[in-house]
Amino acid sequence: MRGPWGHVVDVVEQPLVITALAILAALVDIISHVPTLLFVGFLVLLGFHRSRKLAGKDIWRIQVPSYIGLLVLVSVILFGVHGFLKAIIPEHKPETSKESEEKSVDAHKGIGQLPSARPTRELKLIFKESPALTRARQNHIADEMEAFYQYLAKIGFHAPTTVPPIGVSASAASTSFGSYPADPVYERTLYIGKNSVDDPAAIRAVYGDYAFPLLLNVYGQSSNVYFNRSWTASILSMYFNESFSSKKHLNADASFNGWPGALWEIRSTCGKEFTDRALFYAVGAPEPPSESPDPQMQHFNEYFRSRLMRGEIVVDDSIMSRSACAYRVLNARGLWR
Known about the structure:
Blueprint lengths: L3 H9 L2 H15 L4 H17 L8 H30 L8 H13 L25 H21 L10 E4 L5 E4 L10 E5 L6 H16 L7 H23 L13 H12 L1 H12 L14 H18 L6 H11 L5
Parallel strand pairs: 1-3
Antiparallel strand pairs: 2-3
Helix pairs in contact: 2-3, 3-4, 6-7, 7-8, 8-9, 9-10, 9-12, 10-11
């Protein structure tokens, strides 16, 4: 006659009971692997018992040592499996309410999010259909113009963010306008010369030659005002293009009465920050009186020098005396007369 434990084992060995216990172990396994591994060991012992290999053998001399030995062997194997799983699978830790709140705050700050392929650009660019404007070139042009725009914005300029459609010119010219400058922005075109489409300086020149005339309100003025402001816009576009890269590369020192070369010398001699900021405040300086253009364009020197001096007054102080430094450069170049 079998004892009560024998009946319990018979019930547990039933397939439906085994299935129920397996489901319970699977649910617990979400939190920890240990209960599942113990259940596996339990099944091994039950299977060994069900085989009846030790039926009728002496209980204390054969059955008990056999079950204990099997239990030790199974435990060692399961312990090794548990250690292996723990090493390769990260342990699950329920997220606390505080951690969930911190993650939510970080998400709003953009922390912990997958980085986008490219940072968000402020410039709104449109590219014309052209085999020369490959996707890689479009990204290069956009990155270069955006960097130049951000540089100007850091100085203080409120440069335009909406840009006319960009195309490639069949000529070697680096930049030119299509239609009329006073037309709506999308009815105009900015062209990059085919030989300059990969040149960072030429790309920045396209944006600078578009932005500075708008910053100086060049268009729609009388001829005298238009002349002075358009020259000023061109000089500033050249200067800030080179100041951005800290490299002299436009070879335009002698143009515009020599002002591009003079400004670069002031930058090199008197300081980059001083020159950048002085020219920024020169843009907002009161408009000097405009005279009728003469063949030598000498009146422009007085016009531009007056605006530059007003910008220097805002930035300079008596201790640094950068204005005196700028005066020496302009005087040596004959631009102080």
